Amino acid sequence: MQKHTPPDLPPMKDLTTDNITDNVHTINSSCPDPRTKFLFERLVSHLHDFARETRLSIAEWEAAIKFLVDVGKISTDVRHEFILLSDVLGLSLLVDAIDHPKLPGSTEGTVLGPFHTQDAHHVDAGHHISRDPDGEPLLAVCTVKDTQGRPIPGVSVDVWETDSKGFYDVQYADRSSPDGRAILDSDSDGIVHFNAIVPVPYPIPHDGPVGQLLAKLKRHPYRPSHMHFMFKKEGYDRLITALYLRGDPYETSDAVFGVKESLVVNLSRAGDVEGLAEKYGVSPDTKLLQYDFVLNTVEEARKAREEASLQEIERQGGKLRLQDGLLIPK
Amino acid sequence: MQKHTPPDLPPMKDLTTDNITDNVHTINSSCPDPRTKFLFERLVSHLHDFARETRLSIAEWEAAIKFLVDVGKISTDVRHEFILLSDVLGLSLLVDAIDHPKLPGSTEGTVLGPFHTQDAHHVDAGHHISRDPDGEPLLAVCTVKDTQGRPIPGVSVDVWETDSKGFYDVQYADRSSPDGRAILDSDSDGIVHFNAIVPVPYPIPHDGPVGQLLAKLKRHPYRPSHMHFMFKKEGYDRLITALYLRGDPYETSDAVFGVKESLVVNLSRAGDVEGLAEKYGVSPDTKLLQYDFVLNTVEEARKAREEASLQEIERQGGKLRLQDGLLIPK
Q1: Residue B308's closest chain A neighbor by CA?
Q2: Are A82 and B75 within 8 A, CB to CB?
Q3: So what's the pLDDT on residue B103?
Q4: Which of A42, B52, B138, B265 is the most exposed place for a label (fewest CB within 10 A)?
Q5: Does B215 touch chain A (CB under 8 A)?
Q6: Of A17, A254, A260, which is closest to B97 when you measure between CB atoms?
Q7: Rounded average pLDDT per 10-residue block, chain B, 330 residues
Q8: Which residues contact B95 (CB under 8 A, 6 or more apart)?
């Protein structure tokens, strides 16, 4: 039998509810990467404190293990149940907000969600991104600018939404090609325009373990009507966000905590803006989505992240420091 | 489309790193079961504090999601990777210690581990539980008593160990029937005796995601030599424990934190005890395992659990109370 040399660490024995946590930290302390070591030190502390504070029972622990196995088992390349679990616990929104602190005046981010795909087609301005004949037509005319108010041309704008029944293309077993999604480029005036359908509220997939969890917590699985956007251009911080329709019944109780006031929009009609319907070739009563997106440069985002990190270091009494933009103990 | 009525809760919007936690608590507050609500309140608080304190990055969150999916994917009825994950983080030992506070003088519990099965055969005293011809023979002669020192007859004693190569029967793809495991009954003197092989150290399964995690943390995957025991009898608290061999190279660095000083034993030889080798029909140089197990009654265990709960209530400043033996907020 191959033998591993036991680590040169203080011996552990007689583990109790009081000393187990320090002993796990000790045995993890050989980890050569300071960030990984820090993450596990905090993770183990919180996990153990959770069990101690609640006096978690074996039966509850067993139920949690079974739940986690079920979440893993149902996961596929197109069904991301662990992301969904993170979403409904508010963790996804939190991590996004931590990693993308926004400067005043720039567009806020929100959850990516589990339905973004890598196979959306790159299309020309004005493209109809939805083939659903039952959707209510929507003209989107948006701008992409920097924090100085200057248009940014050539931004890759990834857009995705459900069909009129509230399902993304990937939720259909017979999906043959992308639908309700596309990638467009902003033009020389920073304008991105396309045709779509008016978003509708829809439930997150709730026929699996996460749906059962929501039911146990007496929570509804609905997301308010929204359209997803992802903006990418060299030199700019990638922005993942979404626009929400004002007045949606689920506007203030989103199952995945994605709504921010600055991202809630009123739809108007193409005819409301002089010459717009003619310019974009739609009827005047077509619903109109207008929004001015403002991107941060990579440098602006880096600075904002650093400032937020320094605030956290101060909050924790200066016992941490930054290494490669990540917090580690001093 | 079927609509769920949004809950009658304060509206949420503009979620930030500072208010997201309270908002998740608010949306979970409709949960009718106070214990579930309490568990999720503490879980979400710890999860969010972990992300805030470490300023968890999106890339790290993505790596964690992928890891959890992989842990779920590799799990089967005989490979319990999530239990293994809980084991190597010290959580299993902790939860067991919380749920089974021991009275002075009674036998301590330890981790169940992922290799217990439900199909072990019920055998007579003296049975050879291992078919491995390469194992070093071991005679086990143990007693099962109550905290007053009285023998307890008719206790179901579930025993399991690896073969001489460090593998449990369930780790062999061609396993046809249980091996290295059996269930025996204590006799009228509270004695349980059987033949087995001397336990050897072995690595926990480390060819999956948990093994990769241990490698990243620079931890070895070994458990010191041990034999598992589970004791069950109506009226007594179920005891899950194990005995460890003194002097094992991994005695003080067990990968799953199972070793307790009171469970470490010295093996002797059958010939060391007058008449024992003859009585049990083994050669005098056969290794001998002797141990006096002491069980708690259900009532003793309930009282010990309640006392520990009351201590935790006091530690948290009296804001909790007990309901059906579990902590909930007042």
Answers
A1: A55
A2: no
A3: 82
A4: B265
A5: no
A6: A17
A7: 56 80 94 97 98 96 97 91 96 93 88 89 96 96 97 98 94 91 98 97 94 97 96 96 95 92 96 95 96 96 94 94 94
A8: A51, A56, A57, A58, A61, B86
**CB-CB under 8 Å, A72 with B7:** no
Q: Where are the alpha helices (DSSP H) in B79-208?
A: 81-88, 91-99
Tell me whether residues B20 and A53 touch, CB distance under 8 A: no
How does pLDDT run across A75-113, given as a tens digit for each residue?
Answer: 998 789 999 999 999 999 999 999 988 788 899 999 888
Does residue B17 belong to the interface with chain A, where contact is any CB pair within 8 Å?
yes
Q: In angstroms, what separates the C-alpha of A125 from chain B's closest C-alpha?
A: 31
| CA A70 vs CA A74, A81, A217: distances in Å | 6, 9, 18
What is the rounded CA–CA span in Å between residue B244 and residue B262? 9
Record the tokens describing residue A85, joined without a space: 């679990």
Average pLDDT over residues A304-308: 94
Residues of B in contact with A248 (CB under 8 A): none
Q: Which residues in A lie closer than 8 A to residue B259 (C-beta atoms)?
A: 12-15
Instruction: Determine whether A151 is exposed, middle or buried from the number of CB atoms within 10 Å of its CB (0-12, 13-18, 19+).
Output: middle
pLDDT for B7: 59
Inter-chain CB pairs, A–B, below 8 Å: 299
Residue type, B216: K
The answer to whether domain A104-203+218-296 has CATH 2.10.70.10 is no
Q: What is the pLDDT of residues B35-85, one digit of tens each?
A: 999 999 999 999 999 999 999 999 999 999 999 999 999 999 878 999 999
Name chain B contacts of A16, Cβ cutoff 8 Å: 97
**Is B200 an interface residue toward A (CB < 8 Å)?**
yes
Q: Is there a contact between B92 and A308 if contact means CB atoms under 8 Å apart?
A: no
Q: In the CATH scheme, what is the homologous superfamily, with its name and number, of domain B85-296?
A: Aromatic compound dioxygenase (2.60.130.10)
How confident is the model over A216-255, as pLDDT tens digits? Answer: 999 999 999 999 999 999 999 999 999 999 999 999 899 9
A80 vs B contacts (CB less than 8 Å): 65
> What are the boundaries of each domain within chain A?
1-56, 104-203+218-296
CA A221/CA B3 separation, integer angstroms: 10
